[in-house]
Design brief:
By secondary structure, the protein is α/β, with parallel strands linked by helices. 32% of the residues lie in helices and 21% in strands. The protein has two domains: 260 residues, Ribonuclease Z/Hydroxyacylglutathione hydrolase-like (Metallo-beta-lactamase, Chain A, 4-Layer Sandwich); 167 residues, 3-Layer(aba) Sandwich (Rossmann fold), CATH 3.40.50. It has a seven-stranded mixed beta sheet with strand order 6-5-4-3-2-1-19. The longest helix is centred in the N-terminal third of the chain and has 21 residues. The structure holds zinc ion (2 copies).
């Protein structure tokens, strides 16, 4: 028998950390932080840390990665299995967490040396995607691309006679990034997994990416029609690049102003072709990316003076700026320039943590300015339809829904349990500190 202990990430958004322990083997899936208040860390059971045999890291986002140095501080001496691409991105996430805690006036619970102590093992050097390999004696692992960001993966793990699936953050609907469906993995069709930990960040939201894009399109279109500006705060890497491509496709004749780090992200994307959709399935997005990068009519402001004159010059226009939760001075500066005009729109497209400027703005737009503020998701996670599909494709005796708040996870669980064809398959909505035996 094995046991799952949730150190973080179930019944909440952030600090994903899932401990799998058996009689011999102790494995940890991700170890992230929660960007709320002064920052939350997983509820690590300290006495378990020296027993850990391996850590598997799904991707670089801080809610999955940034508490890893804390494990080393607490005595972990093993390795962290992840992709080369994820490792390359981690330094930036560690640095930005350092800044976040400094701004919040709290101390980091680990030192620089703990971050340097991390010993990485690269998945793609050990085995091709979708093939089994022995990561440790008695622990077999398979990985596949999860479509969520460059370098992001899901894991299948076999240990002590159990089969475990961890989706990481997953989407099959990225315009640019390929995902390897875990449902298509070569396994006897009758084989049930023992445990699946499944990204259900969007809870009961049943919309597809196409639905979301339609809603985004309508909202942007109606703002442009009135001569308004649309401010799109997005993370420096991730959905921003896809949305810029999509915006060029839809509004080729409208001025699109883009802050430089987002363009850098687009260049990097093109160099990481092994993570991109194959030419056949990407509806020409990759060609478009290449074409776009070869254009010489980008509007990339380099100074505040330039920004001011562009704001003066353009009426109906799109503005892609970092960062997605509007914590950066730049995002807040843009807001201050646009907020007095009722025709303008701030369009948030991803998760905004409590306490961030983006969150406050969304809750009480009128107390900050006159322009409108709306949130419409651009999908980088799974909602009802996707989770349903995953449960059918990767059936498990125990499925744990993660990455959404408790209320929403409860509602999703109720939906899925009601329609479940097989009452032997258990679906869980869990909280931090809870356990499941499997
Ligand atoms: Zn993520
Ligand atoms: Zn996440």
């Amino acid at each position: 028998m094995m046991k799952l202990t949730v150190w973080g990430g179930a019944g909440e958004h952030g600090r994903s950390a899932y401990l799998l322990s058996g009689s011999q083997v102790h494995l940890l899936l991700d170890c992230g932080v929660k960007k709320e208040g002064s920052g939350d860390y997983p509820m690590i059971q300290q006495e378990q840390v020296p027993k850990l045999d391996a850590v598997f890291l799904s991707h670089a986002h801080e809610d999955h990665s940034v508490a890893i140095p804390l494990l080393y501080r607490l005595g972990y001496q093993g390795e962290v299995w992840t992709t080369r691409e994820t490792t390359a991105q981690l330094t930036a996430y560690f640095a930005s967490w350092r800044e976040f805690t400094a701004r919040a006036g709290v101390e980091l619970p680990y030192m620089e040396e703990d971050q340097l102590a991390i010993r990485y093992r690269y998945l793609e050097e050990e085995a091709e995607k979708l093939t089994w390999f022995e990561a440790l004696p008695g622990v077999k692992v398979m990985w596949g691309r999860s479509g969520h960001m460059v370098g992001s993966v899901w894991f299948l793990v076999q240990a002590e006679g159990k089969r475990i699936f961890y989706s990481g953050d997953y989407t099959s609907e990225s315009l640019l990034l390929e995902d390897d469906s875990p449902a298509l993995v070569d396994k006897p069709s009758s084989m049930l997994l023992d445990l699946a930990i499944v990204d259900a960040a969007y809870g009961t939201d049943a919309n597809s990416q196409a639905d979301k894009l339609k809603q985004l399109e309508q909202k942007i279109e109606s703002t442009l029609q009135t001569g308004g500006k649309v401010l799109l705060p997005v993370p420096a890497a991730g959905r921003g690049q896809e949305m810029i491509l999509w915006a060029y496709r839809n509004w080729g004749n409208v001025p699109i102003v883009i802050e430089a780090p987002l363009i850098e992200g687009m260049k990097r994307l093109l160099e990481r072709s092994e993570w991109l959709r194959s030419q056949e399935s990407d509806q020409g997005m990759r060609d478009q990316l290449e074409l776009l990068l070869n254009r010489n009519d980008w509007i990339i402001p380099a100074s505040e003076v330039e920004r001011e004159s562009l704001l003066q010059k353009h009426g109906a226009s799109l503005w892609f700026v970092t960062d997605g939760m509007m914590q950066s001075n730049l995002a807040q500066w843009y807001y201050s320039q646009m907020s007095s005009d009722t025709r303008n729109l701030v369009l948030l497209t991803g998760h905004v943590s409590q306490g961030t400027f983006g969150h406050r703005l969304l809750q009480h737009p009128a107390s900050y300015g006159a322009c409108s503020v709306t949130k419409i998701r651009y999908k980088v996670h799974q909602g009802l339809t996707d989770v349903r599909q995953m449960i059918t494709g990767v059936p498990a005796l125990h499925t744990v829904l993660v990455h959404a708040d408790k209320g929403e996870t409860d509602r999703l669980r109720a939906c899925l349990t009601e329609e479940a064809p097989n009452s032997n398959l258990h679906i869980y909505s869990m909280s931090v500190g809870e356990e499941v035996y499997f």
